[in-house]
C-alpha cells in the first residue's frame, strides 16, 4: 500500500477502530470461547475491542494464525489485518544457545545466522514480530534475566544487536522468511537494583548514555521495527510513562521512528509504581511518552475515549500512534498478503531441518567457554569415562524463553556421548535441585527420596571408581534463570556440590561442565576439578556441541561475556568499572585504606573475555604506528602472536583502550575490537587494529559525545585482564 492510501485508510477509521489498533491481546481470546468476565471487561477486553484489536501475542501455530486472521479480517470494518507477535528468543523449534551464551561466541555473525534461522521457522508459522533482541547491559548475575542478554559489554552488545536485528529482518520486512525485530527493554532494565527483577534503576546520566544506551542505539540504527519499553523506573520515572526518555532520548536523539510497544501490562503498572493514580492517568502518561501499543493491560481501550473527548489526549497523538502501527503492517506486506509466510507444510519442513540442526550444533560448541584445563581435555577415546550428574540425561537444555522447542527433539549429553563413547557409564547421581523450594511457581520439581538419592550417589561413586576420568554434568535448573528468577545465592545447588565433593575425593581426574543461565560462583568447583567448562543452556543440539569439544573434534573458542565473580558479594561486577581515588594496593607497603574487600580480591575469578582453547598463544609487546594521534587521523596498534602449543588453534585477540584522564572519570578499560585468528603450531601472525578518533568518544561534561585530547593506554591480549600495553596521546591538531 502506498503512503497516500495508508493515510486515506486512517482517515476512514472510526475512533474505536483507531483506539483498538493500539490494543494487544492474548491469542487465547481468539482460540477458545473466552468468557469475558467482569475483571477482563474492566481491563478493557470487551468483545468489541477484541474484534478490533490491532495485534495478538502468543499464537504460534500457522493453521490457527490463518484461521484467526481470516475470521478477524472478515468482520473488521476496514479489513485491516492483525499483527501476530511472539517471543522467539533463541530459536523457535530449533533452539540455539541462550543469548548470553551467544555473547560468549564473540561472533555476531553466528548470531545473525541463528536469527535468520529463527525467522525462517517463525515466519513460516505465521509470526510477524519477535520480541528480540534483548540488548540490556548486565552487570549483576543475581538478575535472572542476564541469560537473555549478550553480556556486560556495550561494544559487544551493540555488534550483537545489529547482527540479530538484521538477521531477523533482512533487507525488507515483507520478504519471505523475515520478521520484524523488537529491541528491548528500553531502557536500563539490566541495572535493576540488587539484581532483583522489576526493581528500581538509578543511573547517572553519563553512565546511562555511555554504557547503557549504545546497545539499543545499535539495534535502532540497524533498523529495528519496534522497541519495547522496560518495566523499571529510570531515575524516578517509570520508563513506560517517561516522556523525556521516550520522546526526547528515543525518538529525537536516537532517531527511532518505529512502533513503541509497552512491556506486558507495563502501562497498568504505572499505578503500582505510585506514578499514576488511576488507569486514566496511566493512559495519559503512556500516550504522552509516545507508547504506541498497550501490551495486555487494556488501558488504552478503556481510557482513551474519555481522554480524547475532553482533549487531554489529542486526535493527532492518536493518529500518530495508529499510523505507526499501520505502517508496520504495511512494511510487512500484510495489506497485500495478511498471512505473509504462514504455511503449515513449510513450517513443518523448516522446523528442525538439518541445516538448522547443524547450525545449532556449531553454535552450541562455539558458545562453550573452557575455564580451566589441567591437561585432561580433550578426552582420549581409549580411556574409560564415568558421566555423572543431573545434566547427563537431561533433555531440556533450552532455557527459560524457549517455549516452542520440544525437549524430545533435544540431543542430551548422554545421547551424544554414547555415539562416541558407547561403553561408558552414565549416572545421574543426584537431581538438579534438592526440592522445588528454589523455584517459585514451577510445579513438578520433586525431591528424590533419601533412598533413591543414596542409591544414585552410590552408583555414581562406583562408576567414578571404575573409570579413568569423570565428567560431571552439573548446573542450575533452567528455571533458575530468566524472568522473575533472581537469586541471592549463585552457587551450584547444594545437592550437586555435595556429589562433586564426594567424586573429587576419589582422586580421579574430573572434568566439570556447568549448565545454566548466569555466571555462578565457581571457586570451589574449580578447585575440585581438573577442567571446567561453562556450557550454558546450549539448546537442541547441546549434547552434540559439547561432546564435539570434549573429544576434540572441535576446539573451544568461547570467551566470557560477563565477569564470573568469586562470590556474590562482589556484585555488581564488570571489567569496565571506573577507577577510584584509592585503587587497590596502589602504594607499596600500604594495604589497608584502599578500595578493596577484607575477605576477597576485587578481581573476578574469571574475567570478561577469558576462555581457553586446546593450544597456547604467546604475545609480543604491543606496537603503535605512532605515539601521537591527531584528531581526524588513525593509528595502528598491532601485536605479533604465536601458537606455541602442539595443536592448530584459534585465539580471540582483544583490543582494549583506556582514556587515562577525562572531564568525567573513565572506565579502567573498554573493549574496542577483537579478531579471531587461527594458527598452526609454531605459526606466527601480526594482528592489527586501526584506532580511530570516534572510538575514543564518550559523553563528556559538555553533554555530548566527543573525544578529549590526552593520554590513552592500549592493551591487546587474550582477556580484559591483559597486561600487555602501550600508550599514545590524542592531540587537537
Ligand atoms: C517480558 C518481555 C516479553 C513480554 C512478552 C514480559 O514479561 O519482560 O521480555 O517480551 O513479557 O512475553
- Spatial order of strands in the largest sheet: 11-16-15-14-12-13
Proportion of residues in helical segments = 25-40%
Listed once per kind, the bound small molecules are: beta-D-glucopyranose
Q: What is the number of E strands? A: 27
Rg, nearest Å: 27 Å
Low-confidence stretches are: none
Q: How many separate helices?
A: 22
- Judged by helices, strands and strand pairing, the structural class is alpha/beta
The coarse silhouette is globular
What is the mean pLDDT?
96
Distance between the termini: 52 Å
Strand content: 15-25%
Sheet with most strands: 6 strands, mixed
Concise synopsis of the structure shown:
This protein has 22 helices and 27 strands.
Key phrases:
single chain; 733 residues; alpha/beta; six-stranded mixed sheet; 31% helix; binds beta-D-glucopyranose
Structure overview:
The chain has 22 helices and 27 strands. With 733 residues, it is an alpha/beta fold. Strands 11-16-15-14-12-13 form a 6-stranded mixed beta sheet, sandwiched between helices. A 5-stranded parallel beta sheet has the order 4-3-2-1-10. Helix 1 crosses helix 15 (315-331) and helix 11 (243-253) packs parallel to helix 13 (279-289). The longest helix has 17 residues, at 108-124. The mean pLDDT is 96. Bound molecules: beta-D-glucopyranose. Residues 87, 131, 184, 263-264, 483 line the site of beta-D-glucopyranose.
Amino acid at each position: 500500500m502506498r503512503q497516500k492510501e495508508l493515510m486515506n485508510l486512517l482517515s476512514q477509521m472510526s475512533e474505536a477502530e483507531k483506539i483498538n489498533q493500539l490494543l494487544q491481546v492474548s491469542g487465547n481470546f481468539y482460540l477458545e470461547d473466552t468468557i469475558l468476565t467482569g475483571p477482563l471487561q474492566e481491563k478493557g477486553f470487551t468483545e468489541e475491542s477484541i474484534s478490533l484489536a490491532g495485534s495478538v501475542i502468543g499464537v504460534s501455530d500457522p493453521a490457527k494464525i490463518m484461521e484467526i486472521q481470516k475470521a478477524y479480517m472478515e468482520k473488521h470494518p476496514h479489513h485491516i489485518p492483525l499483527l501476530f507477535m511472539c517471543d522467539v528468543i533463541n530459536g523457535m523449534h530449533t533452539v540455539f544457545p541462550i543469548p548470553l551464551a551467544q555473547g560468549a561466541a564473540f561472533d555476531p555473525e553466528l548470531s545473525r545466522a541463528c536469527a535468520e534461522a529463527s525467522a525462517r521457522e517463525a515466519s513460516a508459522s505465521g509470526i510477524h514480530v519477535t520480541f528480540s533482541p534483548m540488548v540490556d547491559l548486565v552487570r549483576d548475575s543475581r538478575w535472572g534475566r542476564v541469560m537473555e542478554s549478550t553480556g556486560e559489554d556495550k561494544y559487544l552488545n551493540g555488534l550483537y544487536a545489529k547482527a540479530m536485528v538484521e538477521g531477523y529482518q533482512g533487507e525488507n520486512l515483507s520478504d519471505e522468511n523475515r520478521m520484524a525485530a523488537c529491541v528491548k527493554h528500553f531502557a536500563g532494565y539490566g541495572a535493576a537494583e540488587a539484581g532483583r527483577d522489576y526493581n528500581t534503576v538509578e543511573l547517572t546520566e553519563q553512565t546511562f548514555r555511555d554504557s547503557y544506551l549504545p546497545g539499543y542505539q545499535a539495534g535502532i540504527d540497524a533498523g529495528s521495527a519496534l522497541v519495547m519499553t522496560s518495566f523499571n523506573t529510570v531515575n524516578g520515572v517509570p520508563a513506560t510513562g517517561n516522556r523525556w526518555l521516550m520522546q526526547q532520548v528515543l525518538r529525537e536523539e536516537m532517531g527511532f521512528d518505529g512502533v513503541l510497544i509497552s512491556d506486558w501490562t507495563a502501562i497498568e503498572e504505572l499505578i503500582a509504581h505510585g506514578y499514576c493514580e488511576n488507569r486514566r492517568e496511566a493512559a495519559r502518561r503512556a500516550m504522552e511518552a509516545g507508547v504506541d501499543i498497550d501490551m495486555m493491560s487494556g488501558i488504552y481501550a478503556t481510557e482513551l475515549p474519555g481522554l480524547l473527548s475532553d482533549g487531554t489526549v489529542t486526535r493527532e497523538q492518536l493518529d500518530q500512534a495508529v499510523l505507526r502501527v499501520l505502517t508496520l503492517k504495511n512494511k510487512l506486506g500484510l495489506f497485500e498478503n495478511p498471512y505473509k509466510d504462514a504455511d503449515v507444510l513449510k513450517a513443518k519442513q523448516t522446523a528442525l531441518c538439518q541445516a538448522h540442526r547443524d547450525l545449532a550444533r556449531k553454535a552450541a560448541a562455539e558458545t562453550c567457554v573452557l575455564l580451566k584445563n589441567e591437561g585432561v581435555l580433550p578426552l582420549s577415546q581409549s580411556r574409560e569415562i564415568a558421566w555423572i550428574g543431573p545434566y547427563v540425561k537431561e533433555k531440556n537444555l533450552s532455557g527459560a524463553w524457549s517455549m516452542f522447542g520440544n525437549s524430545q527433539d533435544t540431543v542430551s549429553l548422554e545421547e551424544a556421548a554414547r555415539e562416541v563413547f558407547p561403553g561408558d557409564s552414565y549416572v545421574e547421581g543426584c537431581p538438579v535441585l534438592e526440592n522445588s523450594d528454589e523455584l517459585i511457581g514451577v510445579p513438578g520439581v520433586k525431591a528424590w527420596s533419601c533412598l533413591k538419592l543414596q542409591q544414585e550417589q552410590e552408583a555414581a561413586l562406583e562408576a567414578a571408581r571404575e573409570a579413568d576420568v569423570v565428567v560431571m554434568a552439573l548446573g542450575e535448573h533452567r528455571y533458575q534463570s530468566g524472568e522473575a528468577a533472581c537469586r541471592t545465592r549463585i552457587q551450584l545447588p547444594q545437592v550437586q556440590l555435595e556429589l562433586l565433593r564426594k567424586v573429587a575425593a576419589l582422586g580421579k581426574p574430573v572434568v566439570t561442565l556447568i549448565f545454566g543461565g548466569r555466571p555462578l560462583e565457581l571457586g570451589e568447583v574449580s578447585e575440585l576439578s581438573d577442567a571446567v567448562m561453562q556450557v550454558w543452556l546450549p539448546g537442541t543440539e547441546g549434547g552434540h556441541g559439547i561432546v564435539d569439544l570434549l573429544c576434540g573434534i572441535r576446539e573451544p573458542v568461547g570467551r566470557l561475556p560477563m565477569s564470573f565473580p568469586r562470590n556474590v558479594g562482589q556484585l555488581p561486577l564488570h571489567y569496565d568499572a571506573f577507577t577510584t581515588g584509592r585503587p587497590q594496593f596502589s602504594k607499596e607497603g600500604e594495604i589497608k585504606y584502599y578500595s578493596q574487600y577484607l575477605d576477597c580480591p576485587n578481581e573476578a575469578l574469571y574475567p570478561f573475555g577469558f576462555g581457553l582453547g586446546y593450544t597456547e598463544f604467546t604475545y609480543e609487546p604491543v606496537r603503535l604506528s605512532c605515539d601521537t594521534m591527531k584528531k581526524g587521523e588513525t593509528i595502528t596498534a598491532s601485536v605479533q602472536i604465536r601458537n606455541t602449543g602442539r595443536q592448530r588453534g584459534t585465539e580471540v585477540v582483544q583490543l582494549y583502550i583506556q582514556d587515562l584522564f577525562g572531564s568525567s572519570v573513565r572506565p579502567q578499560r573498554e573493549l574496542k575490537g577483537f579478531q579471531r585468528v587461527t594458527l598452526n603450531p609454531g605459526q606466527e601472525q601480526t594482528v592489527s587494529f586501526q584506532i580511530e578518533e570516534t572510538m575514543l568518544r564518550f559523553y563528556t561534561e559538555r553533554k555530548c559525545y566527543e573525544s578529549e585530547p590526552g593520554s590513552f593506554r592500549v592493551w591487546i591480549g587474550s582477556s580484559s585482564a591483559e597486561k600487555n600495553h602501550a600508550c599514545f596521546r590524542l592531540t587537537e591538531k
